[in-house]
Design goal:
single chain, about 350 residues, alpha/beta, 9-stranded mixed beta sheet, 3-stranded mixed beta sheet
Length: about 350
């Protein structure tokens, strides 16, 4: 039987060292019907010359400027034909058979739109990595977490997430998605630029009754923070801004009325706490994010989804407050927060 075609697309921006380190593992993937493509977001390092000199058989898509994660992939996928797109960060080391289990799972169920493998830390191979861990979840106020990672606490991998499970969102660090559905959804929201755009896309797909899955039989190792390190002003700004915009877009009207004011209040409290801790950049970033959300709300009304489907009915949503469980009740692990009998 013919294998479905898979296009592994690595979005690169000044990641020459990562390409040198991790591209060989991608090329060694055992899946036969694959293409390996580097889409370059107008890097100003020597990424392109390095690729052309050392990996001449890797396809290159040269973008004229840095469109970010969202815009870069949208532009690249207009030029790529395949049954499946595999979005892969440049700072990811893959394992030889990482593709086959995911494709097999998706081929067995046509309702699966996207899937992620297990994401482990490249630095500590037995630990889950922040970006996705064992599949993304979200609480009823829009705070994201993952099986194996709650806020900044990552669990050790002891086989507890070796399963296949339906989740709320799949990480963009190693994201398998049906090409047809990616285009049906008009791809990522380019306004996001980077951070949370994959969660927004997964949410939109779930609102159309598609499934987002996690495949524990596949695993990769992620460095993390390769483009924007933790605590970076731009990263804080994008995370807070994009999270609120995602809620504006995808919540039902009855939920927006009370959830958004509460979220904004919690953001302000976090900003004040950061200021008291002399973290002035974070304080400024949160308020800059809120101002940008206000501008977006005025200028991008056409981008707001209209749906009556509430979060509570979607798989991968917990009715508990992540902030309360983590900071007040001191629960640090997914299994403590999300009881198997109560989602």
């Amino acid at each position: 039987m013919n294998q479905p075609s898979a296009a592994i697309v690595i979005l690169n921006y000044n990641g020459r060292n990562f390409l040198q380190q991790f591209l060989p593992s991608v090329l060694s993937s055992s899946y036969q019907n694959k293409r390996v493509i580097v889409a370059d977001n107008a890097s100003n390092d020597d990424s392109l010359s390095f690729l052309k000199n050392n990996f001449p058989f890797v396809e290159i898509i040269e973008l004229e400027k840095n469109y970010g994660f969202a815009g870069g992939y949208n532009k690249a996928f207009k030029k790529v034909e395949a049954d499946y797109y595999i979005l892969l960060n440049s700072d990811v080391e893959v394992t030889k058979g990482w593709i086959e289990p995911v494709i097999e799972m998706m081929e067995a169920d046509g309702q699966i739109a996207a899937c992620q493998p297990k994401i482990l830390s490249h630095q500590q191979k037995k630990m889950f990595e922040h970006a996705g861990a064992a599949g993304g979840w979200i609480d009823y106020l829009g705070y994201t977490f993952a099986r194996g990672r709650v806020f900044d606490v990552c669990e050790e991998d002891n086989g507890q997430y070796d399963d296949a499970a339906e989740i709320f969102w799949a990480t963009g660090a190693a994201l398998f998605i049906r090409a047809k559905i990616f285009h049906e959804m008009q791809g990522f929201d380019t306004f996001f630029f980077a951070h949370m755009e994959e969660i927004d896309l997964c949410w939109r797909m779930k609102l159309r009754d598609y499934k987002i899955m996690y495949c524990g039989k596949s695993f990769v190792y992620h460095v993390g923070g390769g483009t924007l390190p933790k605590g970076n002003y731009r990263k804080v700004f994008l995370n807070f801004r994009n999270n609120l915009i995602m809620l504006f877009k995808n919540l039902s009207l009855s939920e927006k009325i009370w959830k958004l004011p509460l979220r904004i209040l919690l953001d302000i409290l976090f900003a004040v706490k950061s200021l008291l801790g002399k973290d002035i950049d974070t304080f400024k970033a949160v308020f800059a994010a809120h101002f940008d959300v206000f501008k977006w709300h005025i200028n991008h009304k056409k981008n707001k989804n209209i749906t009556a489907k509430k979060m509570r009915g979607l798989t991968g949503v917990t009715a508990k407050s992540l902030v309360w469980e983590y900071f007040i009740k001191k629960k640090k692990h997914f299994s403590e927060i999300v009881d198997k009998n109560f989602r």
